[in-house]
Automatic annotation (TrEMBL):
Protein name, as recorded: Poly(RC)-binding protein 3
Keyword Glycoprotein in record: no
Keyword Ribosomal protein: no
GO MF annotations in UniProt: RNA binding
Domain K Homology, chain residue ranges per copy: 11-79, 95-166
Keywords assigned by UniProt, alphabetized: Repeat, RNA-binding
């Protein structure tokens, strides 16, 4: 265990981090220079999930010492960002560096320990705050583990978490968490539907048609009409149907 904690054991691990867009931008750096430097100096493989999602998964793979080095560089970069943000700020207390790990739920029990003994031990020995989410991340069997503190406290905390993960491998199949793209906002103007993409409003013909149909047929039962349905319709009135193709990324806002 001591060898693992000191990074002396050549065991390959994969650690997943959940980051917001701004945090990912900080890790990537201008023209990818920051993440390139982190890869070269740590020796770890650092991959960032694709897509225009509010959240991204950063996967760090390599021997334990390479992982600890990568985490050290990430924590120091975040602290640098915090210091920069406080330069012209009126905030007096410095916020801690915060990282969110994505851990298989089957390993969280070992991380918490009986009666919370293990997580208490990690908090006390490292000085970091550690919180294990009670619920699994959407459509997955993983939970978020939030670590806050100084860069040094975070490194020590990650080392102890790695020891737990090596001692207690995941049980059963793990369904990894995959962040979903943000749904594009929809606006209706002048009888047309538009999806907002960046600074532009893009016409959406299918949604426009749906909007027009909705305006033609009030969905509520008019006053005095006992049978729910559209005005003037009865069992003998022929009805018409309209087939629309609605992309997955905009079906949520419609519902």
């Amino acid at each position: 265990d001591t060898k693992v904690a000191e990074g002396g054991l050549n065991v390959t691990l994969t650690i997943r981090l959940l980051m917001h867009g701004k945090e990912v931008g900080s890790i990537i750096g201008k023209k990818g220079e920051t993440v390139k430097k982190m890869r070269e100096e740590s020796g770890a493989r650092i991959n960032i999930s694709e897509g225009s999602c509010p959240e991204r998964i950063v996967t760090i793979t390599g021997p334990t010492d390479a992982i600890f080095k990568a985490f050290s560089m990430i924590a120091l970069k975040f602290e640098e960002d915090i210091n920069a943000s406080m330069t012209n700020s009126t905030v007096t207390s410095k916020p801690p560096v915060t990282l969110r790990l994505v851990v298989p739920a089957s390993q969280c029990g070992s991380l918490i320990g009986k009666g919370g003994s293990k997580i208490k031990e990690i908090r006390e020995s490292t000085g970091a705050q550690v919180q294990v989410a009670g619920d699994m991340l959407p459509n997955s069997t993983e939970r978020a583990v939030t670590i806050s503190g100084t860069p040094d406290a975070i490194i020590q905390c990650v080392k102890q978490i790695c020891v737990v993960m090596l001692e207690s491998p995941p049980k059963g199949a793990t369904i990894p968490y995959r962040p979903k793209p943000a749904s594009a906002p929809i606006i209706f103007a002048g009888g047309q539907a538009f999806t907002i993409q960046g600074q532009y409003a893009i016409p959406h013909p299918d949604l426009t048609k749906l909007h027009q149909l909705a305006m033609q047929h009030p969905p509520f039962t008019p006053l005095g009409q006992t049978t729910p349905g559209f005005p003037g319709l009865d069992a003998t009135t022929p009805t018409s149907s309209h087939e629309l193709t609605i992309p997955n990324d905009v079906s949520g806002p419609i519902v």
